[in-house]
Amino acid sequence: TLVESASMAGGELFKAKAHLVVPSSANIDLLESELEELANELMVDIVFRK
């Protein structure tokens, strides 16, 4: 995790990185879609890397 200055907003920005391991049988597209919906509800950005 990291907290840094958010120069445009004039406040602080919290950043977190997560490494997720999912079963090979998981529907990755569905998982990404569900996580994006959650991110929208929480008003956070999420980036997926494969």
Tell me briefly what this model is.
The protein has 1 helix and 2 strands, in the order E-E-H. The protein has one helix at 28-42, and strands at residues 2-6, 11-15.
Structure report:
The protein has 50 residues and is α+β, with helices and mostly antiparallel strands. It has a domain at 20-50. The protein contains 1 helix and 2 strands; from the N terminus they run ββα. The chain has one helix at 28-42, and strands at 2-6, 11-15. It has a two-stranded antiparallel ribbon with strand order 1-2. It is elongated. It starts with a strand and ends in an 8-residue tail after the last helix. The mean pLDDT is 92.
Key traits:
elongated; 30% helix; two-stranded antiparallel sheet; 1 helix; 2 strands; alpha+beta; 50 residues
Between the first and last Cα atoms, what is the distance in angstroms? 20 Å
Structural class: alpha+beta
| Percent range of helical residues | 25-40%
Strand order, main sheet: write it out. Answer: 1-2
Number of helices: 1
Flag low-confidence runs.
none
Question: What is the radius of gyration?
Answer: 14 Å
Tell me the fraction of residues in β-strands, as a range: 15-25%
Query: Mean pLDDT, nearest integer?
Result: 92
Q: H/E series, N to C?
A: EEH
Q: Which outline best applies? A: elongated
- How many beta-strand segments? 2
Q: What is the makeup of the main sheet? A: 2 strands, antiparallel
Task: Give the SSE map.
Layout: E1 2-6, E2 11-15, H1 28-42
Antiparallel strand pairs: 1-2
